[in-house]
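User: Structure with zinc ion, tokens only please.
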Amino acid sequence: MSAPLNTTCRTCGRPLPEGIKTPTFPFCSKRCKMIDLGRWFTGEHRISEPLILENKDNPPESRNDPE
Ligand SMILES: [Zn+2]
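Assistant:
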């Protein structure tokens, strides 16, 4: 009779691997967490890439924009 906590991913709806103990609760994975965050940022549902800023050596000199 005890109502179980919502242990399903808020993004994909899959059951969390470790329930409420899931590190990424209430998401099944970090990916789903980022997807949910992306929805908030973009206000849309189309999420194709996670928000990852690559901090590689990319000097602006190499970007030669003709305009
Ligand atoms: Zn998920």
